[in-house]
Amino acid sequence: MWYETSYRRHLCDMHIEDWNEDFLSKFSPEDYFENLKHANIQNAMVYFQSHVGYCYYPTASGHMHRAFVGDEGKMKRLVDLCRDNGIRVTGYYSLIYNTWAHDVYPQWRMVGQDGRSQREAMREKGQTISAGEAAKQRYGLCCPNNKDYRTFVFQQIDEMMDYFTFDGMFFDMLFWPHFCYCESCKKRWEKEVGGELPKNEDWSDSHWRLHVHKRREWMGEFAQTMTDYVKTKRPEVSVEHNFASGVLPGWHLCAAEGVNNACDYTGGDLYGGILEQSFTCKFYRNISRNQPFEYMFSRCNPNLQSHTVTKSEDMMKTAVFLTLAHHGATLVIDAIDPAGTMDERVYERIGKVFASSKRYEPFLKGEMIEDVGVYYSLRSKFNAQGDGYTNHTCCVNAVKTLIENHVSVGVTGGYHDLSKYKVLVVPCLTEEDAYDNERILSFVREGGNIYLNGGCNRPLVEELLGAKVCGYTKESMTYLAPLTGEKGIFGYFNAEYPLSFEGRAAIVEGILDVLATITLPYTAQDNLQYASIHSNPPGVATAYPAVVTKRYGKGRVIWSAVPVEASTIWEYKQIFIKFIDNLLPERSIQSNAPRTVELTAFEEEGAVTVSAVYLNEEYFADTIKGFEIRVRSNRPAKAVLLLPEKTLVDTCYQDGFVCFEARDLHIYDQYRIEF
Asked: Which of 353, 359, 558, 650 is least surrounded by CB atoms within 10 angstroms?
């Protein structure tokens, strides 16, 4: 398939209304194509339709943007120019977001409990609405459970298939922007469950939890239905659904694994920092049905709201090379000017960046080395305990800490093979994930080691520890008091000055190998009596275990009553890394590189390729002084080569490691160890 060899991709947002006759009046397929050529693009995502709902082709089912009336073939000329000149084309179509359909067919609307859509509510507020609210609510939302709306989408897919020749289909906005109480949702709930749709967020209510589950299920089914329809018409066309909502956003969007399962490859647009990008790349890589996965980023700095501010060449290179270090494809997102023009200077800059990255594409082979797997669940983004710590927050911060300490880490989940990992990090899995406990238990029984925290579902904790979970402390502050002899793990913290943690701790009872116990503050934080005006210092020692270790089958367990890995404070990070090193028999990669350097490694027959990326978020990147890289091997290397020129690098074999000195790093370097 086309995507297997495509690493340089592009999208230009065209969510343009037509209330102004100037809008898209200067759109030129020829100029657009020339910009793509200058940018070294291999795949262009081209708008067939937009959030506005207007089509950029002749349509009998919807409304064509008036700038194309009289020259209906503009977008087809762009598509044909691309394909005739070796650029593959993916067609863009917006699902859920469709303002035209929302306005013309009110019965298709996604509505709240009051029966109004967000767009209706916004209109009623008039000029009092904030800019932030407008950005979220200006579009009309159509409910995927409405059968007539689905029929309408099928009609538009038929039209696009008949009119264009293209290679892939991209469906956008596969999530629930808010809870929907339209008649279609009510009827589907009544048919599948019975009774009324739950209205109040209450995680102790099984019906509420089922409602959240059903929303994930319904959106996954909708995505698969769209994929199946495309494949029945054109089996050779790839299908991708935007899976950005499945990664960093919270539980409210109810992003579903089913959406990703309906994709030929995984991708999505995200606008976080560089470490969030690394997390996402690891997740996308492991869940994608085919490689390469696709990471999208905005050419604007910091995001598309800054329409005229373009990321520097160094910032673009950092994003592109970080994706490349995970063997992923980069899609750069631009936004067209309302008149339909594009800034040629942007494409010159993108072209320079992609010219430098494409030299490495022949070396993107092998399987990623991942010593530690961080178990990320889309079903555990909420927290029934109310202390704010979720699988989501814990996993993201755990991965950041592991990257900073040069531990080879991957992001995994219930749909992956766990046997490749030496250590599994499993934080805050809710009862929603209890169905997958057996896979995790089997991993440990067979010799895998695991770190987990007190927020995990009770059956998993109780089985691994052989102890009973009795609830949680009521205090909002918890202290971890190390026992004598545990100085190596807890640093300078001791029983007199225990480690403080803002959050509730799980209470377990049983015969355990305890490394630290829970100390509670003198009073509850909101008590009129207090021990210190600003802090809530430790005062009540308990016998409750805070950190324990245990053998389970052939594997080992470290359990913490609180999610230490969720913290971004240095002291907590160091303790978490010591937990991991205690469980990890040996690291595959070692380095004295600064914490701002990420190292990734891929193994293939007879070779290991190591990438070094400077995780810089400044406009211009500094140069990092050279550092040592050590790769574990049972034999010395025949050669170490600096790619892509294949320059020979001095190397030695020491204590079971192939060792070499990396040169001064600006943004990205790649080394190939040949045996």
From this structure: 650
Q: How far apart are CA 451 and CA 427, in angstroms?
A: 8
Tell me the residue ranges of DSSP E strands in 148-190: 168-172
User: Within 13 Å of residue 341, how many CA atoms lie on the same side as its CB?
Assistant: 7
The closest of 477, 419, 478, 472 to 446, measured between CA atoms, is: 419
CA-to-CA separations, 111 to 116, 134, 178, 197, 302, in angstroms, rounded: 5, 17, 8, 13, 32
Top CATH class, 2-364:
alpha beta
Q: Which residues contact 230 (CB under 8 A, 6 or more apart)?
A: 157, 161, 169, 237, 239
State how far the Cα of 349 lies from the Cα of 312, in Å rounded to an integer. 8
Q: What is the pLDDT of residue 367?
A: 97
Distance CA 610, CA 51 (A): 41
Q: How confident is the model over 447-465, as a mean pLDDT?
A: 95
Tell me the per-residue pLDDT of 357-415, one tens digit each, with 9 for 90 and over. Answer: 999 999 999 999 999 999 999 888 887 666 678 999 999 999 999 999 999 999 998 77
Query: Radius of gyration (Cα) for the chain, nearest Å?
Result: 27
**Are the beta carbons of 44 and 164 closer than 8 angstroms?**
no
Asked if residue 627 lies in contact with residue 659, where contact means CB atoms within 8 angstroms, the answer is no
SS3 string, 101-127, reads HHHHCHHHECCCCCCCCHHHHHHHHHH
Alpha-carbon distance 591 to 22, whole Å?
57
Q: Where are the domains of the chain?
A: 2-364, 372-583, 589-674
Closest CA to 515 of 585, 451, 448: 451
Superfamily of domain 589-674: Golgi alpha-mannosidase II (2.60.40.1180)
- DSSP conformation class of 359: G
CA distances to 653, 654, 655, 658 from 634, in Å: 10, 10, 10, 9
Whether residue 462 contacts residue 487, with contact meaning beta carbons closer than 8 Å, is answered with: no
DSSP state letter for 498: P
pLDDT tens for 248-303 read 888 888 878 899 999 999 999 988 899 999 999 999 999 999 999 999 999 999 88
d(CA 425, CA 448) in angstroms, rounded, equals 11
Q: Which residues pair with 43 in a beta bridge?
A: 9, 88
Q: What CATH topology corresponds to 372-583?
A: Rossmann fold (3.40.50)
Measuring CA to CA, which residue among 404, 313, 325 is closest to residue 360? 325
Can you tell me whether residue 660 is helix, strand or coil? strand
Cα separation, 428 vs 388, in Å, equals 11
User: How much is the pTM?
Assistant: 0.95
**Which residues have CB under 8 Å from 244's CB, separation 6+?**
268, 269, 270, 296
What span, in angstroms and rounded, lies between the C-alpha atoms of 116 and 96? 16
Q: How far apart are CA 165 and CA 232, in angstroms?
A: 16
Question: Residue 491: which of 430, 425, 577 has the closest Cα?
Answer: 577
pLDDT band of 143, cuts 50, 70, 90: very high
CA distance linking residue 568 with residue 397, whole number of Å: 7
Nearest to 487 by CA among 479, 497, 502: 497
How are beta strands 423-426 and 449-453 bridged, if at all? parallel
DSSP string, 556-579: EEEEESS-GGG--SHHHHHHHHHH
Grouping H, G, I as helix, E, B as strand and the rest as coil, residue 507 is: strand
Q: Which residues of 81-118 are buried (b: 16+ CB within 10 A; e: fewer)?
A: bbbeeebbbbbbbbbbbbbbbbeebeebbbbbeeeebb
Q: How far is CA 178 from the centre of its chain?
A: 20
- Which pair of structure tokens corresponds to residue 441? 């238990």
